[in-house]
Amino acid sequence: MNIPSLELAARDARGLAMDAVAKCKSGHLGLPLGTAEIGAVLFGHALSYNPDEPRWLNRDRFILSAGHGSMFLYSWLHLAGYALSLEEVKNFRQLHSLTPGHPEFHETPGVEATTGPLGQGVSNAVGYAISAKMSEAKFNTAAHSIFDHHVIVLAGDGCLQEGVAQEASALAGHLGLDNLILIYDSNNVTLDAMAPVSQSEDTAARYHAYGWDVQEIDGHNLQEIADAVASAKAATSGKPQMIIAKTLIGKGIPEVSGTNKAHGEAGVKFVAESRKALGLPEETFFVDPGTREYFAKVKACLKAGYENWVGKYEAWRAANADLATELDNAIAGKVPDLRKAIPAFDPASNIATRKAGSDVLQPIAAAMPLLISGSADLHGSTLNYIKDGGDFNRENRAGRNLHFGIREHAMCGIMNGIAYDGIFRPSGATFLVFSDYGRPSIRVAALSHLPVVYIFTHDSIGVGEDGPTHEPVETVAALRAIPGLDVIRPGDPEETAGAFAAAFEKTTGPTMLILSRQSIPTLNDIPLDVRREGAFLGGYIAKKESAPLDLILLASGSELQHAIKAAAELGAGTRVVSMPCFERFESQSEEYRESVLPRACRRRVSIEAGVSDPWFRYVGLDGKTVAVDRFGLSAPGNVVMEQLGITASHLVEVAKSI
Ligand SMILES: Cc1ncc(C[n+]2csc(CCOP(=O)(O)OP(=O)(O)O)c2C)c(N)n1
Q1: pLDDT tens for residues 58-106?
Q2: What is the rounded average pLDDT of the residues 458-469?
């Protein structure tokens, strides 16, 4: 290992961080300065990557969970030779730059995850590690091993304090993810204060208890860092690896280092002096030619490793044409036509949409061999178990059913990690009301355009006996507020079939499938194709008026049956519009939307067992809603529905009042 070159690179990275934060007068200096030696060892020595192929299949994945320290990542990606120019580094945090305030997936080559909400990156790394284990099991053969990389995540006190990281770390230990290395930037400082103000646990003991191996090192000693990473990579214990790196936050700016003042940009006023003391010239954004030379050599060396892998990969492809096609399709996001794969339901069936979901998941899973289905300890209720898929665990890395335990937040963060990796298609389940426990990760999935599918059941006050704690009322509306998330609440088994097909055929973002606990009738008056296609369209005419249009009833999910029933009593001029997915409906042409909801008809009533807010968009000022603008009740589901007015007769009454 070339210690002088790595020292020089660490100095230059410190300079870049100081200059970028000083130039834009915002950002965080503490982490990039405090972990410069860690960055030097990782990017200049220990990681296996190819800057010219940032998505190389067998690269080591590096995730900066402490996303506020984004200048760490940008400096090192730049120095390592990724397509991230010095100009971009100078444009740190500016409009449309490749160096946004916090790292964003899809924006910057080499950024593996959108991080910033603390703790997310740790759960993403666990997802990446699971994806790697699955990839090894699925694609490596006795003759050719094309996947054998590691996942390295850098996290600070903030990440490790967050529940999502605790949940994910416990699961990683349980699953024995020995391809995962967590480097803990232990600097004793958080934002407001020194960490001991809010933290006194023994983190090493905590991770030991989770089932991890733990090393403790001086995070500024290049040799110790390199040795620790090497031994973590070589470990044979079957455990995930933690490296506690003791660091001095803001190292290089003595006026603030070691204190919480180093955390943000308070150190900027001391930058000029500090740069001088580090031996940096007056020229800002300076990179020593020696550092450039060193990284050119590193790149050449990494490239040789990459070429060597390509040789193995080509041989693997030649010997395993079917597997190669499967992998190609996964990476290209190719999905078969799922509508054709799902058989029709028995028209006489009267089942819950969660049960219908269970039935349609099976042929979809058969058509999509890389689809994964998990549950937060509720497979028995959410019914999304892939039959014959096996369980993913220590013994079976080929299992397609993931047991997340009662860890909804980690489940959603881990699914993001699997989706970032882009090989397997993750789906996961819990009760809809607990989507709040995973919401921060669902938001990041939407922001990062990740094709994650949530199969969330027990969707309304129809849950019944479990009472108001388990009966979502505001939840669907809150989810509809997340940009880029398709929220589909199907109204019968065939709409459910369409909803699942729409969810898994979409590769540009997440979908939330919202399913009932209680049985609902199959709505045979609406042609099967119309119901299936309706889920894709998001909104459609479920029952057309037979006289001049004078009333529109809008409904979603289990309330569609009530709208159909009410229409029969409300006269020939009544139209029923099924609205399983607002977001999809909004993406249709203006012409189509007008054909479904003609502006001229202002007598409109919606019915949904949830808060009324989202429906005003469609019923307008002259319309009314039949909704649940309060928490639910503890009683049998049909009694709760009756009590709170979610019935066809109440809908008729309200419609007659306008
Ligand atoms: C979920 C979440 N809560 C709060 C914040 C705001 N925040 C950003 S950094 C930080 C402190 C992080 O402390 P630490 O991880 O020790 O980072 P360091 O001070 O070492 O840079 C906080 C509270 C955030 N980004 N995410």
Answers
A1: 999 999 999 999 999 999 999 999 999 999 999 999 999 999 999 999 9
A2: 97
Distance, in Å, from the CA atom of 578 to the CA atom of 589, rounded to the nearest integer, reads 17
User: Ligand 1: which residue has its CA nearest to atom 23?
Assistant: 191
pLDDT tens profile 10-38: 999 999 999 999 999 999 999 999 999 99
Ligand 1 centroid to residue 415 C-alpha, Å: 23
**219 CB within 6 A, ligand 1:** no
Angle at 74 between CA 73 and CA 75, to 5 degrees: 95
Strand partners, 182: 153, 242
Q: Directed axis angle between helix 560-569 and helix 648-656, to 10°?
A: 50
pLDDT of residue 195: 80
Q: Cα 536 from chain centroid?
A: 22
- E-strand spans in 126-227? 151-156, 180-186, 213-218
Ligand 1 neighbour 259 (Cβ under 6 A): no
Helix (H) or strand (E) holding 20: helix 3-24
| H/E segment holding residue 413 | helix 408-421
CA-proximal residue: ligand 1, atom 8 (nearest): 68
pLDDT tens-digit map of 250-271:
999 999 999 988 887 888 999 9
**What are the residues whose beta carbons fall under 8 Å from the beta carbon of 585, sequence distance 6 or more?**
537, 538, 539, 579, 593, 596
Helices 222-234, 3-24: inter-axial angle, 10-degree rounding: 100
